Write a sequence for this structure.
């Protein structure tokens, strides 16, 4: 049996899963700690893609074209996005903590429109993509773009880094504690507003990283954020808000299910994903790895 | 009038009467443009009012409400397509029959979706309603043989009497007014007050012996039915339907209108529809950056004006009345 197409789909699914993980990790962290569902998360991801493109193009003009310039471009974009995230929390999101849920959702919903149009304002309507000029590698009788390995590698690296941060560093443990019970953390004298700012910045920074990493594979275009954000919601719901392991597992489920559904039922691939979301929300609303206490 | 009538009903009746009068006069304006705009305002306003049954009265935000708008539109469009002749004409009776198909089909969809959604509240309700909405969108989008998928359904030309913009407008106005009266009656009944209790304190409602899930489901179905009515009107108005009518961006329109006008009253979303649609028409004449504009407005309203325009006016009136009373006592 020719397993070529299946292997191709598997890699495609895994790299898609890694991008979803990078993106959804930030979303899950933000919701877990702050109870804010950031509708604008994918839009910020898109912004980062455009930023990475601009930095990459600028560096290429100054220093000569080279695929390795992608690295400083990604680092630069991620740092910039973290700063933007910090500013957003400090000046906008902070004002909605006392409010009801619908108003918080609407604030981030409005940001989707605002940031999306700002991207259009600054960069125009054309797609942006980077061609690294890397040759496809032959494996299992089919040609695979080796950049998939880079994505999968960076996804695993970030997952490991996040795990290390959350479980082995003091700040990480504070963040985990805040997911469980923020009032107690505050009562212990830890400045919750600062933690919120850092967590939001970190979440947006992760989205920024995802944007830069995905740039060579998929052209960044207006409107992509609308498709992606609902997939991120699917991942976070299936995995459980606030759980990194859940996000990781759910990303793989969503990514691989999507990639294989494309083979059998192209138009309905996303419908499959939403079916899974509905089943999870009905059977176990706090997700596969979420905590029932928070529900 | 009984004392406290203003406190209980606020500005609803005066605003409703004012809007009805203005709506009746719209066709006097020159040209067809404003009549068309007003028809769109009415249909989307009905959609937004149906959303508000869930949001303002029951306290839950649904990001999948447009699915019922779209289902109503498609049900009506598909019956329309089967009833019309080969030449593309449709008889008057068949036309009304196709319109009548929208609400029941949407209500059945709302029954199925609502059965699952009412088991959750808050953010989980929002996410599940979004997931169902997107599921329905993708089903309509991908089931080409049944719904024509991305192509949409074209050629929804009303009978020649209603092809005239003014006639169709008055038909829409009549239907929407009747729907509004029905919704007003529902929200001012004991059922409506149970909704408010569910919004304010669901646990206490349960203590009082109210079957929370059943009542939420009934309200969900009613809201879905009215959204389906709006959808059924949309088809012949824009002469076509497309899968986008079911998506979360379309749901967002209802949310925006309700927020702008004010969720606290039955006519708030209609007022929001007036402001939103006219703003959109004007802004799009000057710039292509409409999302930026409406996004900023929503941002400012959420931060500074959460009760919407009606909420602001009621607050000012109340402050003035209380101020007067204070002066009189002194």
């Amino acid at each position: 049996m020719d397993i070529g197409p299946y292997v191709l789909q598997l890699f495609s699914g895994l790299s898609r899963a890694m991008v979803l993980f990078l993106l959804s990790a930030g979303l899950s962290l933000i919701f877990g700690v702050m109870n804010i569902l950031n509708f604008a998360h994918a839009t910020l991801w898109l912004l980062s893609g455009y930023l990475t493109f601009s930095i990459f193009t600028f560096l290429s003009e100054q220093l000569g074209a080279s695929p390795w310039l992608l690295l400083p471009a990604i680092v630069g974009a991620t740092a910039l996005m973290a700063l933007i995230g910090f500013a957003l929390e400090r000046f906008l999101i902070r004002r909605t903590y006392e409010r009801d849920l619908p108003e918080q959702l609407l604030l981030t919903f409005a940001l989707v429109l605002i940031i999306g149009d700002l991207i259009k304002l600054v960069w125009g309507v054309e797609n942006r993509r980077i061609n690294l000029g890397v040759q496809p590698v032959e494996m299992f009788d089919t040609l695979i773009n080796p950049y998939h390995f880079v994505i999968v590698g960076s996804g695993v690296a970030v997952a490991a880094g996040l795990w290390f941060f959350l479980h082995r560093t003091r700040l990480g443990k504070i963040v985990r504690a805040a997911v469980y019970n923020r009032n107690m953390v505050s009562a212990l004298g830890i400045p919750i507003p600062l933690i919120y700012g850092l967590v939001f910045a970190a979440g947006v920074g992760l989205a920024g990283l995802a944007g830069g990493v995905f740039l060579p594979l998929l052209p960044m275009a207006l409107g992509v954020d609308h498709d992606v954000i609902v997939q991120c919601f699917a991942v976070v719901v299936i995995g459980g808000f606030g759980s990194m392991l859940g996000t990781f597992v759910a990303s793989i489920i969503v990514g691989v299910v999507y990639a294989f559904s494309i083979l059998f039922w192209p138009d309905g691939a996303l419908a499959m994903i939403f079916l899974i979301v509905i089943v999870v929300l009905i059977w176990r609303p706090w997700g596969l790895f979420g905590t029932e206490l928070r529900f | 009038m009984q004392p406290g009538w203003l406190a209980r009903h606020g500005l609803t009746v005066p605003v409703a009467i004012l809007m009805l009068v203005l709506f009746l006069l719209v066709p006097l304006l020159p040209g067809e443009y404003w009549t068309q705009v007003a028809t769109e305002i009415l249909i989307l306003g009905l959609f937004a009012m149906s959303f508000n049954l869930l949001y303002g009265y029951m306290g839950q935000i649904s990001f999948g409400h447009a699915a019922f708008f779209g289902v109503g539109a498609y049900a009506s469009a598909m019956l329309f397509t089967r009833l019309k002749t080969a030449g593309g004409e449709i008889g008057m009776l068949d036309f009304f029959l196709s319109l009548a198909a929208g609400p029941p089909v949407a209500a059945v969809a709302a029954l199925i979706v609502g059965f699952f959604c009412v088991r959750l509240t808050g953010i989980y309700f929002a996410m599940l309603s979004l997931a169902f909405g997107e599921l329905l969108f993708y089903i309509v989008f991908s089931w080409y043989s049944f719904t024509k998928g991305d192509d949409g359904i074209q050629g929804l030309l009303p009978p020649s009497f209603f092809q005239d913009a003014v006639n169709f407008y008055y038909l829409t106005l009549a239907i929407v007014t009747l729907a509004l009266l029905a919704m007003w009656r529902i929200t001012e009944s004991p059922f409506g007050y149970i909704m408010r209790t569910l919004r304010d304190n669901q646990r206490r409602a349960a203590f009082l012996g109210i079957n929370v899930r059943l009542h939420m489901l009934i309200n969900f179905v009613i809201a879905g039915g009215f959204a389906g009515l709006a959808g059924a009107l949309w088809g012949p108005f824009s002469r076509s339907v497309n899968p986008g009518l079911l998506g979360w961006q379309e749901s967002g329109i209802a949310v925006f209108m309700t927020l702008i006008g004010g969720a606290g009253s039955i006519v708030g979303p209609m007022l929001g529809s007036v402001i939103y649609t006219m703003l959109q028409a004007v802004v799009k004449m000057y710039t292509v950056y409409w999302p930026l504009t409406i996004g900023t407005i929503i941002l400012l309203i959420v931060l500074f004006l959460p009760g919407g325009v009606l909420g602001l006016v009621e607050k000012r009136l109340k402050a003035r009345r209380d101020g007067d009373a204070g002066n009189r006592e002194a």
Remarks:
- Chain B has one domain: 13-248.
